[in-house]
Specification:
The protein contains one helix and nine strands; from the N terminus they run αβββββββββ. By secondary structure, the protein is an all-beta fold. The strands form two sheets. The protein has a six-stranded antiparallel sheet, with no helix packed on it. Strands 5-6-7 form a three-stranded antiparallel sheet, with no helix packed on it.
């Protein structure tokens, strides 16, 4: 049985209506979600931080500092990280994982797709991959 087929798809808007690198609140089926555009991709996530429930639609978009050697600074994942407005926890919008593993909980990130300039989402959690690229240029 294909569980994705059982989860309704929701049209959330035209790609060009979502500004780059800015969280846009969207109401879908009575729920407020955050939508972030990065290039030709759209990411959708719950409006609740898994730490203490902060409204993630007010999150800042950034990258994150990666572990590195002393006196070496490695900034990664630019535009793929949302920062909680209350406690500054950072989450990768592709997986929901907390940056640096600071907390075990993940931000609820939903499946999305862009077709013919239209953005769609399903209320199905994106699975956490075992590894991400080390850097996003």
């Amino acid at each position: 049985m294909n569980k994705t087929a059982d989860t309704p798809e929701h049209k959330i808007g035209r790609l060009e209506n979502f500004p780059e690198r800015k969280v846009v609140p969207v109401e879908v089926d009575g729920r407020r979600i955050g939508v972030l555009r990065r290039g030709d991709e759209i990411f959708a996530f719950a409006d609740k931080c898994p730490h203490h429930g902060a409204p993630m639609c007010f999150a800042q978009v950034s990258g994150s500092m990666a572990p590195s050697e002393r006196d070496e600074f490695c900034y990664e994942h630019d535009g793929f990280v949302v920062k909680c407005p209350w406690h500054a926890y950072e989450f990768d919008v592709r997986t929901g994982e907390a940056m640096g593993g600071i907390i075990r909980s993940r931000l609820m990130v939903y499946q999305t797709e862009v077709r013919d300039g239209e953005a769609f989402m399903r209320f199905r959690r994106v699975p956490a991959p075992s590894n991400l690229p080390a850097s996003d240029a």
